[in-house]
Amino acid sequence: MVEMEVKVHASPAPFVKVKGSHREIGRQIGEFARVQVNRSLENAKKLIDDTYKVLELTWEGAQIQARKYLPFAQESYPRYVDEMAGIAEGAGVAFEDLVVLNAMEAVTMDALHLTKCTSFAVNGDQTTDGHVLVGHNEDWLPEDEDDVFLIHAEPDDEPPFLAMTYGGLLPNIGFNAYGIAQCCDSVYPSDSRIGIPRVVVSRAVLAAKAPDDAIRSALTARRAAGYNHLIVHESGEMYNVEVSARRFGIIYPDSSYLVHTNHYLDSGMQAIETDPDELIATRVRYFRALRLLRSRSKHTIRTLQDIQRDHVNFPSAICNHADLDADPLDREKTINALVIDLTARVMHIAWGNPCSNAYHSFYLDA
User: Is residue 2 very low, low, confident or very high in pLDDT (cuts 50, 70, 90)?
Assistant: First the structure.
């Protein structure tokens, strides 16, 4: 194994405040992150080229495939299609290319088995100050680490939110002014279909005003497939909402903490999981995170950050490190780690591997 050198970022991740209509918000994001959006598209095109023998897909073919998903997004969520169009305009890229980026998992038929994200939450019963805390390690292709940035948004018709994203992707991991937080973990159902792309569905959850609203958004009709949506409310209510194109399972904890990685936990969802015997590392991370959460009677932001730095089962650990010898479809690493203090409305985020990079704090002002 040849490990990729860990990047050390001397500054916090870039941060932008945007407000207005969805088209205006998208345009402001695109103008701010022009470099990141263009670079992420180049990285995506290179990935498609490098994996042609496996996927038998060209970029032109990916555009054709992505076009099939667009009408479903336009029918159910025209406001988020407007956001994508605004990002494309602001960044000076083709809208068709941005649609591919936001439907990448669908157009590659889930060959991008990015199986190393880790999400967890603890409510006030298990924190020293009574605050509700949410943690997430975002694992993705190392080429996109430089494209990470944060968005503080005030849409005209939705709650303000603070979210992490990268490149030209719609934001979906963060929290809003109604005390709703969401983390997303990729899962691999066998019933995927042409429908609303997962990224668009999860973007809608950031607009929720109550837990049932958030869950209902994750389960919107005509979805193409699904993530696990770890949804947390400021009251301490926590849910894993495991989703596929046609099924779902809701897991409610019998304790003060909740964990999810990249395999289904609900027995009904396990029945439609693709190649579960390949999903071993995700189970190791799940049990490791669960043990670490159980090991303390009370947690703090620092103890959750310690969990995010954990290297048991290296390199496929909670703090994931890329293997340069691996197939291009399996070289993901932790590109950021974040802890949300939902009570204080603040996100602490380390840009890159948290074992080597400092956390910086960003507040939701609204």
Answer: low
Cα 347 from Cα 240, distance rounded (Å): 20
Cβ-contact 74, 81 below 8 angstroms:
yes
Cross-strand pairs, 308: none
Is this prediction's pTM over 0.70?
Answer: yes
How many Cβ atoms sit within 10 Å of the Cβ of residue 21? 15
- Residue 95 within any structural domain of the chain: no
Residue 198 lies in a domain: yes
Per the structure block, which two tokens stand in for 107?
A: 């157009």
**For residues 24 and 151, what is the distance between their CA atoms, to the nearest angstrom?**
14
Q: What are the tens digits of pLDDT across the range 216-273?
A: 999 999 999 999 999 999 999 999 999 999 999 999 999 999 999 999 999 999 999 9
Domain total for the chain? Answer: 1
CATH number for position 281: 3.60.60.10
Instruction: Concatenate the DSSP letters of all residues of 347-366 into one string.
Output: EEEEES-TTTS-EEEEE---
Q: Is residue 34 part of a domain?
A: no
CA distance 278 to 265: 15
Strand order in the sheet with 227-233: 15-20, 148-155, 161-166, 173-176, 180-186, 227-233, 238-243, 248-251
Domain containing 210 equals 113-363
Q: Measured between alpha carbons, how far is 321 from 127 in angstroms, rounded to an integer?
A: 29
Q: How far, in Å, CA of 281 to CA of 273, rounded?
A: 15
CA angle 230, 235, 241 (to 5 degrees): 20
Decide the pairing of beta strands 148-155 and 15-20.
parallel
What's the number of CA atoms in the CB half-sphere (13 Å) around residue 42? 9
pLDDT bracket for residue 100 (50, 70, 90): very high
Strand partners, 273: 189
Instruction: Choose between 1 and 32: higher pLDDT.
Output: 32
Q: Report the percentage of the chain scoring pLDDT > 90.
A: 88
Domain assignment present for 37: no
- Per-residue pLDDT, 326: 65
